[in-house]
Amino acid sequence: MSTFAEFGLEPDVLQAIMEMGFEEATPIQAKAIPVAIAGKDMIGQAQTGTGKTAAFGVPLISKIAASEDRIVALIMAPTRELAIQVSEEIEKLGRFKGLRSLAIYGGQDISRQIRSLKRKPQIIIGTPGRLLDHINRKTIRLDDVRTVVLDEADEMLDMGFMDDIQSILKLVPDERQTLLFSATMPANIQKLAQQFLRNPEHIAVDSKLLSAPLIQQFYVEIQERMKFDGLCRLLDMEPPELAIIFGRTKRRVAELSEALMKRGYACDGLHGDLSQNQRDTVMRKFRDGSIDVLVATDVAARGLDVSGVTHVINFDLPQDPESYVHRIGRTGRAGREGTAWSFVTARETDHLHFIEKVTRHRITKKILPTLSEAMEGKQKLMAERIMDTVRAEEDVTPFKWVAMQLLEQYDSVQLLAAAMKLLTGDKKDVNIELTPEDPVRGKKRKFEGNRGGSGGGYGSSSGRRYGGSGGSGGGQGAWRQGQGRSDSRGGSSYSGGQRKPYSGSSNRTGGNSSSGRDDGGYRDANRGGRPERRDDSRGSRSQSEDFVKI
Ligand SMILES: Nc1ncnc2c1ncn2[C@@H]1O[C@H](COP(=O)(O)OP(=O)(O)OP(=O)(O)O)[C@@H](O)[C@H]1O
Ligand SMILES: [Mg+2]
């Protein structure tokens, strides 16, 4: 099973899939779509970045009639950014059917959402806190819901949404289909599944491998106070196309992004203390390439799909192995390659080995690049940019006269070197001091990973590897995105990153996550700093278009 046509989808849905540039189904899609179309409950597990959204999105869209004027499908996701992203994918999938969907999340003006609800969307994609808010206000009724999807269900539980999810699910008729998706399935998910899924089919791809071959994983042993300079060296040596740097706490993220800006990097921070407007702006800047470095708490660890992320750097090690997998899974998506670096202090080496053990992946130790290696990397990049401009025969006429004058007076090498120094925006002399973080202390718990599949059991799936040697259905795991989705962002300043065209083989998986996130209430997973606050429901507005006709 490899092409979407084989699922017997209606032409409107097939056309949408083609326009999105999907040529072949990914392995999880190949397995999950027929089961979901058959109406069965399902627990779907596959590595990060392998198309789980469409795996539930395609069957969901297929089942809804455009004439429907009630809410018939409900998708729950842990964070606002994820709710928005999933709703965008659902919107694309349903475009030609003329369905309506609406993202409902905290931090956005509720009366605006209420107005949008009057347009009778058939599909709601929401974070649990705000959903419950609407249910209590009777602005959302779930009486007609026939399909429920829990995306990143383990994370929602981790964030303390169990009660909210239970309250919501109790209001959905029993005669429904429930689908649960994540890259990782820790033990607590079983509880939820037992309670709310009926004879679920366990669909897993490569469940034995929690590793991610398309993501190169490295770690550096480093002292806490050396981390910042180490980070700058890494960014200089291997200039990313886009990079996400994870910090443990909101304070950490705020300090770090400010420090990087001071040193001349195009970066911004994302954490739960920002208003929805600010969060939207940061994400937009990252997606369109006006910044290349996003510093974030775990609010960005789950599900976020930004094409062109070549590097993930764990400035602070995450608390859970699952979180590690989800974090690094922000790169190496849709068959592309990526690189993950983790900073590990001496007292955290045991924790790193625990992560290695759970993810069953060796993380290679590396030594930080020296100052001159880092400088060389940066200079190479500058040279490339200059050469690109020359090769592209860009019009530099207005600069030529002054250039000639300068060349008459000064040595050409001296001149070019000075110009490059200016171009690199090097601000190494800016003094930066970050508040130190305590070393991470792993939760003492037994990891159940994704081996906990009851019944059908995840392990029983043959663990077919797609791409590489294994091939998926049509061979060589050739699923990839065509032109339908932009994967190069115009105007991005970097070209030195190592984004490579899709090359197949990929296996990865994830776990749950730790620190701060979204949605309602508080959550204390951030040691050594203020915990990230979840702030779903009440609050500011968002400028993003929240209602999409699909
Ligand atoms: N069949 C396909 N062919 C090519 N690209 C695809 C296909 N299906 C999905 N994609 C793309 O792959 C990327 C990752 O998809 P998605 O976000 O659904 O992954 P995921 O499995 O949910 O990852 P995560 O575990 O991080 O949430 C997206 O950009 C999506 O558009
Ligand atoms: Mg996902």
TrEMBL record:
<dbReference type="InterPro" id="IPR014014">
    <property type="entry name" value="RNA_helicase_DEAD_Q_motif"/>
</dbReference>
<dbReference type="InterPro" id="IPR001650">
    <property type="entry name" value="Helicase_C-like"/>
</dbReference>
<dbReference type="GO" id="GO:0016787">
    <property type="term" value="F:hydrolase activity"/>
</dbReference>
<feature type="compositionally biased region" description="Low complexity">
    <location>
        <begin position="478"/>
        <end position="515"/>
    </location>
</feature>
<dbReference type="InterPro" id="IPR014001">
    <property type="entry name" value="Helicase_ATP-bd"/>
</dbReference>
<keyword id="KW-0347">Helicase</keyword>
<feature type="domain" description="DEAD-box RNA helicase Q">
    <location>
        <begin position="2"/>
        <end position="30"/>
    </location>
</feature>
<dbReference type="InterPro" id="IPR027417">
    <property type="entry name" value="P-loop_NTPase"/>
</dbReference>
<dbReference type="InterPro" id="IPR000629">
    <property type="entry name" value="RNA-helicase_DEAD-box_CS"/>
</dbReference>
<dbReference type="InterPro" id="IPR044742">
    <property type="entry name" value="DEAD/DEAH_RhlB"/>
</dbReference>
<feature type="compositionally biased region" description="Gly residues">
    <location>
        <begin position="450"/>
        <end position="477"/>
    </location>
</feature>
<feature type="short sequence motif" description="Q motif">
    <location>
        <begin position="2"/>
        <end position="30"/>
    </location>
</feature>
<dbReference type="InterPro" id="IPR050547">
    <property type="entry name" value="DEAD_box_RNA_helicases"/>
</dbReference>
<comment type="similarity">
    <text>Belongs to the DEAD box helicase family.</text>
</comment>
<feature type="domain" description="Helicase ATP-binding">
    <location>
        <begin position="33"/>
        <end position="203"/>
    </location>
</feature>
<dbReference type="InterPro" id="IPR011545">
    <property type="entry name" value="DEAD/DEAH_box_helicase_dom"/>
</dbReference>
<keyword id="KW-0547">Nucleotide-binding</keyword>
<protein>
    <submittedName>
        <fullName>DEAD/DEAH box helicase</fullName>
        <ecNumber>3.6.4.-</ecNumber>
    </submittedName>
</protein>
<dbReference type="Pfam" id="PF00270">
    <property type="entry name" value="DEAD"/>
</dbReference>
<feature type="domain" description="Helicase C-terminal">
    <location>
        <begin position="214"/>
        <end position="376"/>
    </location>
</feature>
<keyword id="KW-0067">ATP-binding</keyword>
<feature type="region of interest" description="Disordered">
    <location>
        <begin position="434"/>
        <end position="550"/>
    </location>
</feature>
<dbReference type="Pfam" id="PF00271">
    <property type="entry name" value="Helicase_C"/>
</dbReference>
<dbReference type="GO" id="GO:0004386">
    <property type="term" value="F:helicase activity"/>
</dbReference>
<feature type="compositionally biased region" description="Basic and acidic residues">
    <location>
        <begin position="516"/>
        <end position="550"/>
    </location>
</feature>
<keyword id="KW-0378">Hydrolase</keyword>
